[in-house]
Design brief:
Helix content: 55-70%
Number of helices: 13
Structural class: mainly alpha
Order of helices and strands: HHHHHHHHHHHHH
Radius of gyration: 19 Å
Distance between the termini: 50 Å
Number of strands: 0
Length: 313
Amino acid sequence: MSGFNEQEMAGEAVPGHLREERAGRWGPEALHRMLLRFNRTRLRPALPHDDWEDGVALEARLRGLEGAFVERERRLVAERAAEAPEEPEAFVAWFESLKQTGPGQGDPLFPWLATEAPLEPFRWFLTQEVAGEAGFDDLVALTQVKLPTRAKLELARNYWDEMGRGREEAMHGPMLEELTKALELHPTDEDTVWEAHALANLLCALASNRRYTYQSVGALGVVELTAPGRAACVNVGLERLGFGMPVRRYYAVHSTLDVKHSEAWNREVLQPLVAADPRVARPIAEGALMRLAAGARCFERYRRELGLMLPQA
């Protein structure tokens, strides 16, 4: 096993001056394909290898690019994140309001998927979504490390649900794989829009770097808050197109279960964390807003690629 290597990371040799580069000097498509390969490699189980020192050096350069990307995303939401209150109950109320007021909420793409989208555009949309899936279970597992007990226990319960409560057939990952097979989706890096890769890269960056722990808490929490409505639209659209529950189960489950997850996350994670240290309110808010903004960019790109001229909410 060679570990990190330049060809795998970039698809071609990484320039020797990469250490001095910053994310803003790379085109988004090249940057996010590189970070996508980086995340696959660093999260994949491996064995010791002789060239580990070269791998560590390359990882440091890629982590620099990743950090520059995240910091740029933080700057884009900084003004709104600063509005988040530091009093626990008020913060939770502010967070919950993102379901109505956050970036990308009420996007017309999803009612269209529910009521009008033909099969082939629907398959294209789902291919992008599958390709951009970062693995919620693993993100939760990475984020919970060393959190206070109450928050840690709620993330553990969330993870256990993702794991099907110990039953393979109920695991969420295999549910998504079943849908992928049934619709004959074949996601590739080359055919996936960079915005979908950027969304996955953002979530991996937040969960993999402890300095962004609270941003990760906010990002994952806002997924639970906002996903049910979108999942319900996708589920309705799949049913309209004639697909039965075994195929639709991933979206059917998330249209209901995530409502309960969100309520518990806000009560057991957000409220006690902010009560214990009001300073974490702002980074949690940043994570939520960054995740929503990244999703909104995906929805806009999807509509553009599908040639949709839909009225904005």
